[in-house]
Amino acid sequence: MLFNSVDFLLFFPLVTALYFLLPHGARWVWLLLASYYFYMCWNARYALLIALSTLITYASGLLIHRSGERQGLKKLWVFLSFASNLAILFFFKYFDFFLDNLSAVLALGGIVLRRPGFDVVLPVGISFYTFQALSYTVDVYRREVEPEKNPFRYALFVSFFPQLVAGPIERSKNLLGQLYERHSFDPDRVREGLLLMLWGMFEKIVVADRLAMLVDHVYDNYAELPGAAIVVATVFFAFQIYSDFAGYSHIAIGAAQVMGFTLMENFRRPYLARSAADFWRRWHISLSTWFRDYLYIPLGGNRKGRGRKYINTMVTFLVSGLWHGASWSFVVWGGLNGAYQVLGEMLSPVREGVCRVLRVNRKGLLWRGGQTVFTFCLIDFAWLFFRAPSFSAARGMLAHTLRNFQLSALPGQLLNLKLNGPNFLAALAGVGVLLTADLLQERLGPLRPRLVRLALPVRWAFYLAAVLAVLIFGVYGPGYDARAFAYFQF
Predict the structure, then answer these.
(1) How far is CA 386 from the centre of its chain?
(2) N or C: which terminus of the chain has fewer CB atoms within 10 Å of its end residue's CB?
(3) Residues 36, 120: one domain?
(4) Does residue 324 have an active-site annotation?
(5) Nearest 5°: phi and psi at 113?
């Protein structure tokens, strides 16, 4: 069930209404049933995988707690929890990738590998709920949370439907406790949640889905187009992936807020970042902090010297790239983002020296704006590998761009890249709205509290204009199927 579907527009009000009508003690049961139904709308059989991951991590939490001070035994339970969950993830997500690479290596020696005759379908959201469940195991081991005694309430933590299939990847110390709280119907909270959901819908169906039309066309037919079109499509993809994933996150956070739950922030105006490190403090925050807390710091973080810090950074980003998909293009994407951070820190003394010699005003608008533009260019170059269907396709697109750039031919073809004039202008306007909102929030702070303090006629005029913008400019209608959110494939 997609957030941007008629089914969800019926499902969510019904779930919310019954949630507030039911007695407090029965509400979590209702949410658990609704969450499993929500996931089973994709593939009912794969709900068994969530149940299995839930059972393993629930049992591991209890066993770790009962092990007391026996550190060796506690580490054994953590290892078994990780090994079993990651084995499931490997089979469904990386098995074909592993066999492809094994076959290629064996072929170098003249050995032909006979592949098994079955096809594995990737379950929606498996990487997200697996990481959420595994973080619980570590949190119990670190004694940051007490183990949950009720297996069904813990199952709700793993499967909570607003953030089940694409995050934010919640921590047990934030969400588990909220499942015991009594949430009353609060009109102000509901209004703010619905506003955030409306903003997420605008990001998804007005901006992301329209940009995707041009991006898909160019990436599918790049050999027939000038290289400049690839550059335009890659810039558009940067805003497509942002508005798509941020749109999902905002709908998820808003839906949870309507029911009284607070989920963690997942995006903080990432394209206003002034360095690659700053970008990753703003982009997919729940995942970047997960890797920081459960991989980078356990590897040693920055505590064992600069060289080890660089290695730990690269390992973390390479693993993050592989988490996103079973393809070398994702690994390269992760490696590029890691290399940006390592090189940025290594060259920091040189940058400082040049600024002193040239007497650069580092607080000036020109310098800060230049940093933001340069950072965007680096991140956008890496996005090409993320979006390309394979590493070889990404190499082909880069080579084609260098050989056949043809900037002069682009204006004549720009409106033939799947978007006609009105749609192209609507796409640019949508990006402009996104950037304006980000700039205002960067300067003024959150906009929703300011909005609800406006005079009633002004406020309702804004609400009506926002709804009309989604209805008029959204990408849907006859012959259109609700487009899945990009991060569902991860």
Answers:
(1) 13
(2) N
(3) yes
(4) yes
(5) -95, 125
The Cα–Cα gap between 417 and 235 comes to: 14
Q: What is the DSSP letter of 477?
A: S
Fill in the DSSP letter of residue 50.
H
- Six-digit token pair at 231? 């550059």
The pLDDT tens digits of the residues spanning 387-402 come to 999 999 999 999 999 9
Q: Degrees (nearest 5) of the Cα angle 422, 427, 431?
A: 145
Per-residue pLDDT, averaged over 238-265, amounts to 94
In a domain, 16, yes or no: no
| Residue 370, domain extent | 289-387
236 and 88 fall within a common domain: no
Catalytic residue among 250, 284, 324, 400: 324
Instruction: Judge whether 40 and 164 are in contact, CB under 8 Å.
Output: no
Three-state DSSP at 240 gives helix
CA distance 312 to 317: 9
* Placement of tokens 């640019």 in the chain: 428
> Which backbone phi and psi does 364 adopt, to 5 degrees?
-75, 155
DSSP state, residue 124: T
pLDDT of 488 strictly over 80: no
Q: Are residues 299 and 211 in the same domain?
A: no
Token pair 């492809």 is found at: 100
Which pTM was predicted?
Answer: 0.91
User: Could you tell me if 371 and 274 are in contact, meaning their C-beta atoms sit under 8 angstroms apart?
Assistant: yes
Q: Which amino acid is present at 81?
A: S
For 284, the 3-state DSSP assignment is coil
Q: For residues 337 and 320, what is the distance between their CA atoms, to the nearest angstrom?
A: 10
Q: Which two tokens stand for residue 81?
A: 């929890």
Residue 478 has pLDDT above 50, yes or no: no
Helix (H) or strand (E) holding 269: none
Task: Summarize the confidence of residues 347-363 as an average pLDDT.
Answer: 83
Contacts of 230 (CB under 8 A, 6+ apart): 218, 219, 222, 384, 397, 400, 401
Rounded Cα distance, 156 and 19, in Å: 14
More confident residue, 166 or 372: 372
pLDDT at 279: 96
The average pLDDT across 420-448 equals 89
Same domain, 244 and 122: no
Q: How many domains does the chain have?
A: 3
- pLDDT of amino acid 96: 85
Residue ending a domain, choose from 160, 182, 204:
182
Give the C-alpha separation, 56 to 133, whole Å: 9
Q: Do residues 81 and 172 share a domain?
A: yes
User: How many CA atoms lie less than 13 Å away from 389 in the CB half-sphere?
Assistant: 10
